[in-house]
TrEMBL record:
This is GTPase-associated protein 1-related protein. Pfam families: GAP1-C (PF20052), GAP1-M (PF20014), GAP1-N2 (PF20013). It comes from the Bacteria. Residues 3-132 form the GTPase-associated protein 1 N-terminal domain. InterPro entries: GAP1-like_C (IPR049532), GAP1-M (IPR045401), GAP1-N2 (IPR045402). Residues 1-20 are annotated as: Disordered. Residues 151-241 form the GTPase-associated protein 1 middle domain. Residues 270-807 form the GTPase-associated protein 1-like C-terminal domain.
Length: 830
């Protein structure tokens, strides 16, 4: 099939207003296509071109070789070259001539060559042929000039190779038209063509065919090509246009070119002068630009790669262990485990571990042994706790003995080190490697486990959240592999559980430790039971406690520490209520509580009980009142049960509660008010509810008709502001007011008390006067005449005739006051 050709030249002198003109157009190229083609053929000379250049200067001027996709799906391959202006005149001495070949949709170049291979073809012409246009462009057989010397060019551009190849790969993707081009800055446009030659060898053919380009332009920002070449003087304009610019004609870049593992591998292949490997790699399964196939091919050919590329090779082979034959598998393992490599990374080791797991059982042990040795060496010396370790049988034979002999002293030394801090993952890894290599660590195991057990809780808590800790999978594998470690570690956790059972329970919720065997492990079983008990029984903490205690399988009489664990699990962040504390106290002997240390929780329950609220009858009532009475009774029992353990402010607080019990139910020792003050001072900082409870019990007893006079005298003259205020509040309750109205003898007693100590300090007199006027007077006013007379008589009998007269005077002033108010009312009404 004939390919239409187009010739275009710059405007002749006198053709003002035009950049150029078509001088020959082959058949099938429409006028609409010519309008699209014309901008592609125009050639703008660099600045500073001589008016009459010599032949050498003319040959050094840039030529633009272009491959463009047209709107109708056809393509254009063209060369625009400077030529000498033979027309003379005053214009510049250089013009340009463009020669183009039009490729209809689906029609390749002769010989099915890629467009870049037509560069330097001897069939490009710099003049318009006379007469008929000759036959279409053909290419000579064999490599064309652009393919020659690509190895040398690639080596010379080593610092830029990876970054440029990465961008050329991205530029070849099937993106939408109008994307921003990649700009290659070279002093010679032929070197831009060589870059494209590198791409044509490196990229798959379909990608290379999408790579439209021009080797030279002055206006890269307006080019529709995916790759453009510019001279160094135009590089800044390309950067200003926001384009991706590679200046390959200056100082090499100091930083690594790209993070693209495929491009980095391709660059190393080119620098090794092995472009045939690209074809081999394309025969392997995988995505076109996956780094794995190319990296595997390069490593098998003996090309040294970086850690990312080696990781890609190992990962690819791990996913496809069937894709390589035995020879290449051995070559790959040998390359990955080379002793000369000193820059391996964590991801590379992880990939190598996956490769070992994929090859183990498929290949002879002699092939996989170097991988196994490398992995365990890294596990010991590199501290990589995420490695997938080989099985124990991977080290059978002399290879295993050599590795064990080399690493055993290091493992035992680190396991025995108690000075430094070692993470859980590190300890687990060392224990697993020790077993793999048959290293006997029996002597160090008890101390290792004693350090490992609390570290599990600490690291799990530090990670936070409810997800499984990072170290959990390796830990569970360790416990599954090594019975002696599992037994020792579970025993150590069971021993520390009573100290912080809540932390152990939270850990067991996140890590399902295997303790379903014959070990007793009462505390671990309790910690594992509590989440289900809480979910099932809800807020009934007493029921949860019973269920958790049953899970231990031991009686608190036989093992008192189960008390501590159960209490810590159920009441971890709070004190029990008084009722719950009574349940706990009755569930075991005082000796059991003493050993378990749970007596302190019982003390907290007693001291933290809420204050009682007075009822309408004047006696404590309701739940808080019951709690008060039970708290006082609990305090009494605790003082008897733990006399040697309870001291300091806690003992004073319990004594204060016990005094409350005696004030309400018995006859405490004399000096009530002073005892309350002393015990409150000793119990500082005393709980507000406890202080309120003690004050209330004291003043209730002082307001009782049968209180000793000496106690009342001490109270009044003690001038304690808080106690007198409590007395005032209680005296104003409805209970006392009712008793005053209905019991003349009680009203007489209160009158005597409230008038008997007019000079007792500063606090009592105004309180007593207010009670007389605001509490007693309304009560007497509401009495019948007979009851008032009985009050007066009682005051006279218990006091003196003078006190009876004082009552009459006090009562008369009240009566006169009422009479005066009545008369005043009548006058106002009149």
């Amino acid at each position: 099939m004939s390919l239409a050709q187009v010739h275009y030249t710059s405007a002749a002198p006198g053709d003002e207003g035009t950049a150029g003109r078509f001088t020959a157009v082959g058949p099938g190229v429409s006028g609409a296509l010519l309008a699209e083609i014309e901008p592609l053929l125009r050639h703008e000379l660099p600045d500073g071109v001589a008016d009459r250049p010599s032949d050498g200067e003319l040959r050094s001027l840039p030529q633009s070789f272009t491959y463009a996709a047209l709107s109708d799906g056809s393509r254009l391959v063209s060369r625009s070259a400077p030529v000498r202006d033979t027309a003379g005149g005053a214009g510049p001495g250089v013009r340009f001539h463009a020669h183009a070949v039009h490729l209809p949709p689906g029609v390749p170049l002769p010989g099915d060559r890629l467009p870049v291979e037509a560069w330097r073809s001897p069939h490009w012409v710099a003049v318009t042929p006379g007469g008929a246009i000759p036959d279409p462009l053909t290419l000579p057989p064999g490599p064309t000039a652009v393919s020659e010397g690509l190895d040398d060019f690639a080596v010379s551009r080593g610092p830029w190779l990876a970054a440029v190849l990465a961008d050329l790969r991205r530029a070849s993707e099937p993106t939408e038209p109008g994307g921003r081009p990649v700009v290659l800055v070279e002093r010679q446009c032929a070197d831009v063509a060589r870059w494209l030659g590198l791409a044509s060898v490196t990229l798959p053919r379909e990608s290379a065919e999408r790579l439209t380009f021009t080797t030279y332009t002055r206006r890269p920002g307006s080019s529709a090509a995916r790759v453009v070449g510019v001279l160094p003087e135009d590089a800044e304009a390309a950067r200003a246009a926001g384009l991706r610019v590679h200046v390959c004609a200056g100082q090499p870049p100091s930083a690594r070119g790209t993070d693209d593992a495929w491009a980095a591998t391709a660059a190393r292949v080119w620098r090794s002068r092995s472009p045939e490997l690209f074809r081999e790699a394309r025969d392997l399964p995988g995505e076109p630009f996956a780094a794995g196939p190319l990296a595997v091919t390069a490593l098998c050919a003996g090309i040294a790669l970086g850690p990312d590329e080696r990781a890609a090779a190992a990962g690819w082979a791990a996913d496809r262990p069937y894709a390589l034959d035995a020879k290449r598998t051995g070559q790959l393992v040998e390359a990955l485990t080379s002793p000369g490599i000193d820059d391996r990374t964590g991801p590379e080791f992880d990939a190598a571990g996956r490769l070992f797991g994929a090859l183990e059982g498929r290949c002879p042990a002699a092939v996989t042994a170097p991988l196994a040795a490398m992995l365990v060496t890294e596990a010991v010396r590199g501290g990589n706790g995420s490695l997938e370790l080989p099985r124990r049988d991977a080290f059978v034979g002399p290879e295993g003995a050599a590795v064990a002999e080399r690493l055993a002293p290091e493992i035992l030394t680190e396991l025995s080190d108690t000075a430094g801090t070692r993470s859980v993952a590190r300890t687990v890894q060392l224990l697993r490697v020790a077993r793999l290599l048959g290293v006997d660590g029996t002597d160090a195991l008890p101390e290792v486990v004693d350090r490992l057990a609390p570290a599990l809780l600490t690291e799990a808590a530090a990670e936070g959240g409810t997800d499984t800790p990072d170290f959990a999978p390796a830990l569970l594998e360790l416990l599954d592999e090594q019975f002696e470690v599992r037994t020792a570690l579970l025993g150590a956790l069971d021993r520390i559980a009573p100290q912080d059972p809540g932390a152990v329970a939270r850990f067991l919720e996140r890590v399902a430790l295997p303790f379903t065997g014959t070990q007793a492990l009462p505390h671990l079983r309790m910690c594992a039971e509590v989440p289900g008990a809480m979910a099932t029984l809800g807020g009934d903490r007493a029921a949860v406690w019973h269920r958790v205690l049953r899970a231990a399988g031991l009686s608190p009489f036989a093992e008192p520490l189960v008390l501590r664990t159960a209490v810590g699990l159920v009441w971890e962040d709070r004190a029990p209520t008084v009722e719950e504390a009574r349940l706990l106290l009755d569930a075991a002997t005082s000796d059991s509580h003493r050993v378990a240390g749970t007596w302190a929780r019982l003390v907290d329950a007693a001291l933290g009980a809420p204050a009682a609220a007075p009822s309408a009858t004047g006696t404590p009532a309701g739940p808080s009142a019951a709690s008060t009475d039970e708290a006082a009774a609990l305090a009494h029992d605790l003082l008897r049960g733990f006399p040697g353990e309870i001291g300091g402010r806690e003992r004073a607080g319990l004594l204060l509660l016990d005094l409350v019990r005696e004030l309400r139910t018995g006859a405490p020792e004399p000096g009530w008010a002073e005892t309350v003050r002393t015990l409150c001072a000793q119990a500082e900082p005393v709980e507000p509810a406890l202080r309120e409870r003690a004050h209330a019990a004291l003043v209730e007893r002082l307001l009782a008709p049968d209180r000793p006079g000496a106690e009342l005298y001490d109270f009044v003259h003690g001038d304690d502001t808080e106690l007198i205020a409590a007395y005032d509040r209680t005296a104003r309750t409805e209970t006392v007011r009712t008793r005053l109205r209905t019991q003349p003898a009680y009203a007489a007693d209160c009158f005597t008390v409230w008038t008997a100590h007019p000079h007792a300090g500063k606090t009592w007199p105004p309180v007593a006067a207010a009670l007389l006027d605001e509490v007693l007077r309304p009560a007497v006013r509401a009495m019948s005449a007979e009851d008032v007379a009985e009050v007066e008589a009682t005051v006279g009998r218990t006091g003196s005739s003078g006190r009876a007269e004082a009552f009459r005077t006090w009562n008369r002033s009240s009566t006169l006051g009422r009479l005066g108010r009545r008369i005043a009312g009548r006058v106002r009404r009149g």
